[in-house]
Amino acid sequence: MNKIRVLAFVGPSGTGKSYRAQMVAGENNISYIIDDGLLVNGNEVVAGESAKKAPTKIETVKHAVFIDEKERKEMIKAIKKYKPESILILGTSDGMVEKIAENLELPKIQKTIYIEDVATETEMETARNIRQTQGKHVIPVPTFEIKKDFSGYILDPLQIFKSKGNGNQPYISEKSIIRPTFSYLGNFTISDTVFRQIVEYLAKKEEGIAKVIRTRIENYGEGPSIYMEISVVYGHNVIKELKEFKEKSIKEIEKLTTMKVQKITVIAKSISMPVFGDGGKKQVK
Question: Residue 215: pLDDT above 80?
Answer without folding.
Answer: yes
